[in-house]
Design brief:
By secondary structure, this protein is α/β, with parallel strands linked by helices. The chain has 13 helices and ten strands. Strands 2-1-3-10-4 form a five-stranded mixed beta sheet, sandwiched between helices. The chain has a five-stranded mixed beta sheet with strand order 7-6-8-5-9, with helices on both faces. The N and C termini lie far apart (63 Å).
């Protein structure tokens, strides 16, 4: 019997249907995995940003509400890490995720927070951008220029590294401290000459207006680490909750890696970002399971802190290891 011949278009459509069916089945398996319910705190307020892939997946799937059925779980979105850590420091949150620079500024300001978890570096997820028609071609061209950046954000350290790589002094540039939405507006109307930014704002701008990239975190040897921080009283009272959080965050990361289409849909549905933007910034994101910060990560973070102090951008030196959580080994 002769098999019917399928057109290339029909064959591709069937392949896509098969992939989609597989992905949704996998996503359902992650969402409905029978992890046991465990005792939790009375409330758990979690701070996150649009770039917090693992947290967004947990939020969208209601995983923590199932793991902690007796806990009132609340999710609060922030435009950047400095605002999130300010809320954490005044008791408005128990747990949150930021980039590398915000905890340094918080520690230097005397905020009582703890590094409790970390994700692997994401050096491709931040960049220094200029418009297509900008006369700036090299990092040395930043001299005397106005550069938009969120103060105390991971992009702030990216800009520090760019100035260093260019052989310039910090006083040679004019940083313009703006939150991401205001920075993009200033960038597009040419009120600033360049913009240091991270994903997904980087991806959204890249697709919308095709800026030129002067340098990425990888170009500048900026690891762009991501850290989970928590309030010290919460950590002391509920260390077992952190272990559950890390397990579930790592499970969410496996979904992001193995069922990419579904992760993109979950994040796009939550954030309102175009699926193409989400796809682009997730492509730049490596596998990101969560664990306590190890010695290499702490040493990398100390370099961030030392760079900010050397430039006088924080008021005193800090020892990062002083506020790194050291959990008791599992029995």
């Amino acid at each position: 019997m002769t098999r019917p011949t399928l057109s290339p278009q029909r064959r591709r459509a069937l392949q896509l249907l098969g992939v989609t069916a597989f992905d949704w089945a996998l996503a359902s398996r992650y969402a409905n995995a029978q992890s046991p319910a465990v005792p939790g705190p009375e409330q758990l307020r979690i701070g996150y940003q649009k770039s917090a892939v693992n947290l967004v997946i947990l939020k969208q799937q209601g995983v923590l509400e199932k793991r902690f059925p007796g806990t009132r779980v609340s999710w609060l979105e922030f435009p950047a890490g400095p605002q999130l850590l300010e809320a954490l420091s005044v008791g408005s949150l128990e747990f949150g995720l930021t980039g590398d620079s915000p905890p340094v500024f918080a520690q230097a300001a005397g905020k009582d927070l703890l590094y409790v978890g970390a994700e692997p570096p994401k050096p491709d997820s931040s960049a220094l951008l200029v418009l297509k028609d900008s006369p700036l071609r090299t990092l040395a061209d930043l001299k005397g220029r106005r550069i938009a950046v969120q103060k105390g954000s991971s992009a702030h350290y990216l800009l520090v590294k760019a100035v260093e790589r260019a052989g310039l002094q910090w006083a040679d540039i004019q940083p313009v401290y703006l939150a991401p939405a205001d920075a993009r507006a200033a960038f597009e109307r040419k009120s600033v000459d360049a913009w240091a930014i991270w994903d997904p704002f980087y991806a959204a701008t890249e697709l919308a207006i095709q800026p030129r990239v002067l340098a990425t975190g990888r170009d500048l040897a900026s690891s762009n680490n991501s850290f989970y921080l928590a309030a010290r009283p919460f950590v002391q009272a509920h260390p077992q909750v952190l272990r559950v959080l890390f397990d579930e965050l790592s499970r969410a990361d496996r979904l992001a890696q193995e069922a990419r289409k579904d992760a993109i849909k979950l994040i796009a549905d939550f954030s309102g970002l175009d699926a193409g933007v989400v796809s682009l910034f997730i492509q730049r994101r490596p596998s990101s399971p969560v664990d306590v910060p190890g010695p290499t990560t702490v040493a990398d973070q100390q370099r961030v802190a030392d760079a900010f102090f050397k430039l006088g951008l924080i008021p005193k030196p800090v020892n990062v290891a002083d506020i790194v959580w050291r959990p008791v080994a599992r029995s």
